[in-house]
Specification:
single chain, 124 residues, mainly beta, 7-stranded mixed β-sheet, 52% strand, globular
Length: 124
Amino acid sequence: QVLLVESGGGLVQAGGSLRLSCIASGRTFTNYAMAWFRQAPGKEREFVAAIRWSGGSTYYADSVKGRVTISRDSDKNTMSLQMNSLKPDDTAVYYCAARVGFATATTATAYDYWGQGTQVTVSS
């Protein structure tokens, strides 16, 4: 069974930075793609960034491109999201997700496993 556990959320002022982490366990993730999504109150879950576990190619939503960096550490089975220049609109619960297969995807339904989420709040 795949288990994803996020950490690193918190309260930060606009313009600040946060680094989210996702520890993955239960599988060898070589043939997985992983992603970060976020969900603000009253809104649908939104794609943020994705990475292929093997090879490390990345993909970003336009709304965060240039401000966030997704990465993974294969030795530690950890995926991270470095977020800089944060805006109040970035306030949401951030979720780590994994899907079987090499292809990244931007829709939540494409992902098979989810973490419990970590809250990010950006104050103005």
